[in-house]
Design a protein that fits this description.
about 35% helix; alpha+beta; 20 strands; eight-stranded mixed β-sheet
Length: about 400
């Protein structure tokens, strides 16, 4: 097998997409084509809430293009071609997926070593072809979704952006990010802001802080939105929402229905939603980007006593905490994935740390300790969460 086999195989499948969609986000256009409607619907479920509000595409010509081939025969053909190449490395793109890497003249090739079997061909010209081993596996939409998300985020990171473990939302013209480990209440805080009249939701678990010229900005990260059952119950009650008996969500359907077929909100730790599901369920609006006005490190406490305390943090303390929750280098959980970074990791970390010190010398940061009972009061009472945060930030 020679290089022409790769060219012939991928060129044969590029014109054959039966379904396609374009995602315009952060000023760039991404095109996705697939032989299965489910692939396109999955992309839309995660990206459409962000893209719908972003009309500033620099060009209608795609910045990057992805073609998904759901043909087991094509997958086996691709596997046969790659078997003649030497392994050049290993990439852990996600906790449940690891790739063997191969390099040819025309492309880079990634073949799964663990996780759902598929292959990704990076043609080095802005085009990517994904060959799936099957089309009916529940995991089959993930490769395209994760690749597209990596393309969007890596472009932001390459222009002085840093991805942090944080949820973000706006209230009026103010943009706030809530940074912390899993279970600290990040998503609950962001959702509480977004559910107000002028609020918008950016991200539920990871956000990008842009540290370039001008005012620092926050960018959403299109991924599943996870929220604890206690917090979700409060949000639903505050909006007078009850989950309908015919509500369809793959996570709910498999995990959260009891023997009577009704939803059980008390037995599982967290629920997972696509951005579209989250938007529709809570009737909230999304936005792809906003300016950064303050950063909070929340601790949502499961207590029946109402209390909320905010403590102003020093600049060095803020930066130290952000760096602990940042995606920098191969030891940061997801590593660097499938999209190459054209910079030295250690020098990049030093540059980011210096940029953060500069940013948070003028942008305040706070410890935020708040009880479930107080959050319920904020959502259902006269004083809402946005008013509380705005008042404290303005007071400083």
């Amino acid at each position: 097998m020679d290089g022409m086999d790769i060219i012939d195989l991928t060129n044969h499948h590029w014109p054959s997409a039966s379904y396609s969609t374009q995602v315009v986000i952060n000023g760039f256009c991404y095109q996705i084509g697939a032989s299965s409607a489910d692939q396109v619907l999955c992309i839309q479920d995660y990206f459409s809430p962000y893209a719908a509000d972003d009309k500033k595409a620099t060009s209608s010509f795609p910045y990057k293009s992805i073609r998904v081939v759901s043909d087991p025969g094509a997958y086996l053909h691709a596997k046969s071609i790659v078997s003649h190449f030497e392994i050049s490395g290993i990439v852990k793109h996600h906790p449940d997926t690891e790739y063997l890497c191969y390099e040819a003249v025309e492309c880079k090739i990634y073949s799964t070593r663990s996780g759902y079997d598929h292959m990704i061909f990076d043609h080095l010209d802005g085009r990517y072809t994904i060959f799936l081993s099957s089309s009916d596996d529940p995991e089959s939409p993930k490769p395209a979704l994760r690749l597209l998300r990596e393309l969007v985020v890596s472009r932001l990171e390459a222009t002085n952006g840093i991805t942090v473990h944080g949820s973000a939302a706006t209230c009026g013209k103010r943009g706030y990010i809530f940074v912390g480990s899993s279970g600290s209440g990040k998503t609950t805080c962001a959702a509480a802001l977004a559910m107000r009249n002028e609020g918008r939701f950016l991200s539920g678990d990871r956000s990008v802080i842009s540290l370039g010229n001008g005012s620092p900005r926050l960018y959403g990260w299109p991924m599943a939105i996870n929220i604890g059952h206690g917090a979700l119950s409060i949000l639903l009650r505050s909006a007078n929402i009850d989950l309908p008996s015919n509500f369809r969500n793959s996570y709910f359907d498999t995990c959260l229905r009891n023997e009577d077929g009704k939803f059980d909100l008390g037995d599982k730790n967290k629920f997972a939603f696509t951005p579209v599901e989250f938007k529709n369920l809570l009737n909230i609006n999304f936005c792809p980007m906003c300016e950064l006005d303050a950063i909070f490190f929340p601790n949502l406490v499961p207590s029946d006593q109402p209390f909320a305390h905010m403590t102003r943090l020093s600049t060095t303390d803020i930066v130290s905490r952000v760096m602990k929750e940042a995606r920098i280098g191969p030891k940061s959980g997801h590593g660097y994935g499938l999209v190459s970074r054209d910079y030295d990791v250690c020098r990049h970390a030093e540059k980011i740390s210096a940029a953060l010190l500069n940013v948070f010398s003028s942008i305040p940061g706070y410890d935020l300790r708040i009880s479930f009972k107080q959050m319920e009061f904020f959502l259902c009472g006269d004083l809402d969460f946005a008013d509380f945060l705005n008042r404290e930030v303005a007071g400083d």
